[in-house]
Amino acid sequence: xxxxxxxxxxxxxxxxxxxxxxxxxxxxxxxxxxxxxxxxxxxxxxxxxxxxxxxxxxxxxxxxxxxxxxxxxxxxxxxxxxxxxxxxxxxxxxxxxxxxxxxxxxxxxxxxxxxxxxxxxxxxxxxxxxxxxxxxxxxxxxxxxxxxxxxxxxxxxxxxxxxxxxxxxxxxxxxxxxxxxxxxxxxxxxxxxxxxxxxxxxxxxxxxxxxxxxxxxxxxxxxxxxxxxxxxxxxxxxxxxxxxxxxxxxxxxxxxxxxxxxxxxxxxxxxxxxxxxxxxxxxxxxxxxxxxxxxxxxxxxxxxxxxxxxxxxxxxxxxxxxxxxxxxxxxxxxxxxxxxxxxxxxxxxxxxxxxxxxxxxxxxxxxxxxxxxxxxxxxxxxxxxxxxxxxxxxxxxxxxxxxxxxxxxxx
Amino acid sequence: xxxxxxxxxxxxxxxxxxxxxxxxxxxxxxxxxxxxxxxxxxxxxxxxxxxxxxxxxxxxxxxxxxxxxxxxxxxxxxxxxxxxxxxxxxxxxxxxxxxxxxxxxxxxxxxxxxxxxxxxxxxxxxxxxxxxxxxxxxxxxxxxxxxxxxxxxxxxxxxxxxxxxxxxxxxxxxxxxxxxxxxxxxxxxxxxxxxxxxxxxxxxxxxxxxxxxxxxxxxxxxxxxxxxxxxxxxxxxxxxxxxxxxxxxxxxxxxxxxxxxxxxxxxxxxxxxxxxxxxxxxxxxxxxxxxxxxxxxxxxxxxxxxxxxxxxxxxxxxxxxxxxxxxxxxxxxxxxxxxxxxxxxxxxxxxxxxxxxxxxxxxxxxxxxxxxxxxxxxxxxxxxxxxxxxxxxxxxxxxxxxxxxxxxxxx
Lengths: 411, 411
Known about the structure:
2 copies of one chain form a homodimer.
Chain A: E1 3-8, H1 16-31, E2 35-40, H2 46-57, H3 63-70, H4 72-87, E3 92-95, E4 103-104, E5 113-115, H5 119-126, E6 131-135, E7 138-140, E8 146-148, H6 153-164, E9 169-174, E10 195-197, H7 198-206, H8 214-223, E11 227-231, E12 242-245, E13 258-274, H9 279-289, E14 297-299, E15 306-314, H10 318-330, E16 338-351, H11 361-371, E17 376-382, E18 385-391, H12 395-405
Parallel strand pairs in A: 1-2, 1-9, 2-6, 3-6, 9-11, 10-12
Antiparallel strand pairs in A: 4-5, 7-8, 11-12, 13-15, 13-16, 14-15, 16-18, 17-18
Helix pairs in contact in A: 1-4, 6-8, 7-8, 9-10, 11-12
């Protein structure tokens, strides 16, 4: 029998009614002849409640106890999904992570899956079971204790199972009906994409289109798992949602596939840094140690042995960044005249694998923004992405203008 | 190091504040030099919520899925208790049932503990851990799936750990401060007992003094585990609560230790049953199959080959009992003229190991009730118990009169 992996997120299993609805979708795939592996999240709100308990109990918690606590929500949903399918006369049973077992490394609260043996579940498929429901987000570490994979980890569980079982496809059911050219709340011209490449999805996901956990996309790309994102709240056809797949399978050959944005960015500039070999490491080492997620980095040309160094980071990490840099200055590791933070910026990115073969994309982007009177503060580019920082107040305008300029509303 | 087992019920861990309070009690015992094993229930309300989910999803549920679902509440409390103790600088960690492992038989939802290996936890005690927190109520079956022990099962978990680890004592923290001579809501003369024998506790527990799960008392009796019941809501001394222990250790030598009662009883009479060998089995077999908990049984003297058979059962099982008996009659297995149910009765029991050596207890009980004008409908006796059925409206009066007659308010 071909195998299908179906993953249901927290909002898709938020109530017993929604679990029933999800189970019906599973039943449809079973009736098509699939052996189905269902990965479930906790009912929405449950994990947050448990994380709240942990934070209130112990601000600097033991991550092993955190994992034992927050993994419990998925176990409840897995059992309830099994009972719901059984009520529909579909042979089903639940597995907790340690029962499969989903073996991970020992990085509690942010563990990585290392191995998923298939014999246990395949044995049950062989005995006539049609659906294996597995609690997502969790595994078991080398010490025999429960681990969790970090926020959104159930997506990664789903892709890892699809890879381990050689599934035909991995369907991620969520509360949106696919991946859009941009956020429909910014422009009603936003269009759902039928297909998108892994590479584009990675850029979009890490840029704030929070449909799929980044790691799950990386994993899908590495193991060539066909990933489909679709809504659990709509009637579904086989062509519903967005298929995330290899570049060759994406037929559209447009330079830009989507416009991503990130509202809460800040731009920090170290003014007049004493330039010397190793200065970048001296600056960004302490920032990394302090847990600051540095994104774009620009170094101006040095004059008379001094240079300006600019970088961007999420706005809520500015304080931490300032502390780290002031600490490094006091320790004598770096030397600068001033540290200037601009917390009123947003990041806009145009993403598309077509950029590789088509020129002029950057020029068109800059001209579009210029025509709208939007000043670009920082530019960074990769092979399939051009990102700019602009004043936050222009963010919506910039996204709309770029969406129009690259004609993303047209299929 | 001597080992102590401490068990905290649902109301004792209902909030993070109460978990903190319980952890402080644990800390006190650690400071006395004990290695402590803490058994926790789910935060009160959690298990009921999960059971509600199961019943709503699937009225005839798969007990293996039920167990996987309802056991999750205890895991949360265990982790939170570990974090709370760590915050108090007490080395602690949590165990889920399958991690110990608490091995049970395969009777899902009503499993019995078969083995608790001690090496895992004792190894950690050897490394300096001071408190092992174990999720109560749960274990792992021969098939590697999670089992639960039935309602109140955490008491049994606690006693089983005390037996396995040779603990000096097993302290059950609950929302009452001990075992009383009767329910203080019936008479304010009710007095807390300092000590009570296992046998008396068994009779009291099964009669409705719902302080401890019956099976946990049986287990404690078999393995000679000193069991103490005490309140988690009061400051505690070493003499607090009620010690449940062997008969020899109970110093008081009074005929009656307590008056128990059960309000919602019913009395059923099969009128004019054709008497023959095996008739009792023909009647009570079908009742047992139907899940009716028959308590007292009285058979009148047979006349002309016919007899009356009377038994008592909980009021909510009357319908089921009638169906079972009518079925047996229709099948020709039994023959009776009439089936009369009196659903307006209550059971009153005087319990005391002193009865064994002191005569006149039954006579005194009957005379006391007679003096109050309370008619006795059924009598049943055991070595340390005398039970009567009376009209429900006299229940409080009867309990108060007996409590006075046996002078239970006096220490």
